[in-house]
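Q: Joint fold for the lines below.
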Amino acid sequence: MRITSRKRTIAFAVTLGVLVAAVALALNISWIVLNWREVVPLFLGVLFFGFIIAGVILNTIFLVREVRRNEQQDSFLNAVTHELKTPITSIRLYLETLQQRQLDEAQRREFYQVMLQDTQRLMGTVEQVLRAARVTQKDATLHRSEIDVGPLIQDAVELARSRHHLPAGAMTWELDGKPAEQLSVTGDREELSAVLSNVLDNAVKYSPKDPHIRVDVVTPDLEHVQIKVQDNGIGIPTGELKRVFKRFYRVLSPATQQVKGSGLGLFIVRAITRRHGGRTWVESEGAGKGTTVTIELPRYQS
Amino acid sequence: MTGRILVVEDEEHLARGLKFNLEAEGYKTEVAGDGEAALDLLLEQRAAFDVLVLDVMLPGKDGFTVATELRQANHYIPVLMLTARGRPADVLKGFAAGADDYLPKPFDLNILLARIQSLLRRREWSRVLVNDPPSESRLAEPRSADVLREFDVYAFSGKQVDFGTLELRANGKIFRLTLMEAELLRHLIRNSGKIVSRKQILEEVWGLHEDTDTRAIDNFIVRLRKYIEKDPTKPQHLLTARGVGYRFLPKPAG
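A: Joint structure:
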């Protein structure tokens, strides 16, 4: 229902824009036909008509964009509301249960554990939203230092594995075979961990029940280090490869509907990488054929 | 009050917490992780539940869709929607989809339990009404209250139909009948051994007198056969009288 109403709004805006532009164009042509002998009014008229047509076209484009952005913001709000309210609901339910019922020690312990996990999840969501706000601030400072890529990846992989309860074989990582000390980058450790955990979470979220995720580190040249995260998930259609980095943007398909997300992950990944002077891009053979996310960072120069 | 409750919730923690509390209250509780699983349980396997606690934000089919599809399939289990979306528009959408009650998250445990109890109680009350109508209007109809009371539970060759709870026990399973399925079965049972024409069924079960397409009954028969017959393609109890109608036999034919 939401999709059709959105399509209708956009269709209306586009039709109106095209119609007005066409009318202006027709008037422009008749103006030329009527005034072709008189150079000055002809020239001025064509110029003004040109402005009007350009204005109408620009207006239509902005309108469509605005409608899209509104829709995305809406789905973002829904997703975040859900992500915030679910753990709170769960914590409240368990607290009320503890308060009202006679429980044995083992059950009580289990409930405490559940609540702790819920608080962590709540914290994760809050962090993510705050980070998305922070990375867009120009003056925010980075605590730059030399960071070994190996331990950074190892920590991220181990954290992601335990977060998603994955066996060791489901997520593997490998360095380029270079001595470890050569592979270090300049950056903010916390921010870079956030980048990796976002990319790894995506890899798990958009993969089948039994994921195979590989993290490779490559050095294309002396100045750069590339971290490649490859999964066997649902992939990304070619047309969407660039859009997935936009804030709140989520690919709309039956497969992605199964996955909950805020549309912030890759936006944060790209924003942080850029602030480090690096680049991020995704490659995918298409829907169902897995995705590779590459994070390129400048190498540490001593 | 006892009852069987199906909780449709994909968040594992919430599902576990709900199940624990509902079971502590003495309800038999099952959890379905998504909408498809719930629809499969209720519509395909015809598992018997008294209340459905339905989350809205589910992977795949959301709660609104699940409720709509249940109602379209004439499944009238009381539905309590449980959702993080508490805006008036969402609440209205929930009721429009066929929910009986709507509770926004986060909820108070006692209020949730009270609402489930109220749905169960309402169900009890309407059961009493079906079996013992207070108004005189029903008495005037050919299906008098006496006939309705004629049998509340009917057993035949190892199978059992409870017309009070609309449950059919056959082949080791419990099926939940829709009201019309039950009425049709009751009519056929009442005329055991006799051939009942399609027109007669339409008139006496559905109360239709016009020349409606009598083939609609066939779909109901197909469904009833699926519950009752060992092999629905070779019916033993619900026989077709070619070109006329149907006949019910309490003992297997041939």
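Q: Anything notable?
A: The first strand of chain B starts at residue 4 and ends at 8. The longest helix of chain B spans residues 109-131.
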